[in-house]
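Notes from the pairing session

We agreed to fold both candidates in a single pass and log them together. This is the raw record for the first candidate, unedited. Please don't reformat it; downstream parsing expects exactly this layout.

Candidate A
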Amino acid sequence: DSAPMTLAKPLGKGLFVSGQLTLTTLQAAPDMGVRTIVNNRPDGESTDQTPGADIEAAARALGVGYQAIAVDHSGFNHAQIEQLWSLIDQADGAIWAYCRSGMRSTALWALAMARYGTLDIVEIVSLAAGAGYEISGLEPQLRALRDEQPA
């Protein structure tokens, strides 16, 4: 069954994004080299979403880590960006980040890469587009983050 692989879209090295994970799609994570699941979706956002605690329990049962970095309608903040970068920077395998559609996960990845990574803005936007996510509207924010001085 290749459904999980088509669900999970690669962004850059070692990071996949997708819409809502289910307990079934999650089963593919170990075979994909995924060592960490990142939930970018607050619980209770919709009635059809699998609760984060259920995903976490299933991930841990598969020997896969789990981290919640919930992004709601208020948008992104520096703590969330730093938290995702820390996971990327210290990863010992692939990361699979998910939200409702994959867009928030992609945007958070892009912001983290702009702030801390080595890809230029054009590469970040291009990788996102290759995965099916149009984030060119984030370019001003990506540039602002890239230009920030390290704390």
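Candidate B (folded immediately after A)
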Amino acid sequence: MKNKGTGSWIHRRRVKSAGATTLIHSAELTGLATAGSAGTGVARRILVDAAVDGSVDADVEHLDRIIAAATHEHRDEPVDLTDPAVIQYTSGTTGHPKGAVLSHQNIAWNSFNVLVDYELSVRSVALMISPMFHSAALGMGVLPMLLKGGTVVLEPHFDAGRALELVQRHRVTYLSGVPTTFQLICEHPAWPATDLSSLQMLTCGGSAVPARVLDAYEQRGLPFTGGYGMTETSPGATSLLPRHSRTKAGSAGLPHFFTDIRIADEAGQPLLAGQPGEIQIQGPNVIDGYWNRPEATVQSYAEDGWFRSGDIGYLDRDGFLFISDRLKDMIISGGENIYPAEIEQIILELDAVGSVAVVGVPDEKWGEVPRAYIQLRPGHTLSEDRLRAHLVGRLARYKMPKTVVTVDDMPRTSSGKIRRRDLRSVAIETNPS
């Protein structure tokens, strides 16, 4: 179950959507489990660890007792490759989360993609600092590592200092996360003194890694692998290996070995290199549809079966994918298309900026215009004049944020992605000077 920072109503919606009848949770999340299962079809709750204070309801079962009482008879349950294996909910950064039905085939082929592109072995040790309900942690880390026979170190919460300590203690070779987690790690006071010599591979998804973060790791001989994917692709679609991290800076890489990528226009016709359009994906790692959402399933596939990502991007002449932005995040100002990610990457070059999100806000003249929400790094300041001076000459005038709002914190999903729709809602309700 997710962490305590998200609302129980979100969990309740997903539990009801999935039709779950059994809920398995830790003692720490008993309160959330109780609230999140209220009014749903959950008739059975199972605790995976003993309650410290004995406050768990009497009707809650204990996993260790269930295991102790079970028979030793081996059950051979027939499973077909196309049978559903797990329902994973999308992050919901642009709308309500949908339950992606991942089959056994989907997660197996995704693991094969990872093992082809990344150097994992039985001696590899992965530290999972992202939750396993997030498809990247499960599909790009845990499952391929276990398939190869490596070791997985699981953490219930992310803490930058503890992550550094665990890397040194367990001689971790593989670490994956989002740009925010990697930034927090390299800015932690323990960063300079921690032995990171065991690390061989860092994978980062969700968005591009800021140049200063990339520099901090490369100065210690730690190059990044990047990539692009989503829950619906189990989740890998492309990967950018370290040897291309500088020559193809900003790229999400090449398609995984068993996966194909194309860029298509609104009519579904493939576009030439350099032409932006919708990123579409095909392969055995792509889901067949959503749980109890037939209308969403139909809308998510082109007539010839390619999955429509809802993301805008282009392929260069070498076949490397470059992400422009989410289709739903694109700002249309005076008839011109503006991709927030382009603006955000330039703003992130400023040392004072910790996080940034650009969204469209209503405007009587232009329809909508860009607004930048900025979270500063501790101890830093940034004037609006300094920001605009940094952008002048690098962005067309119509792409320049018309307003800038400094925030103490960004609304995020449990996997660390910024919830843009929350910022858009705030932007509609407020009009800062």
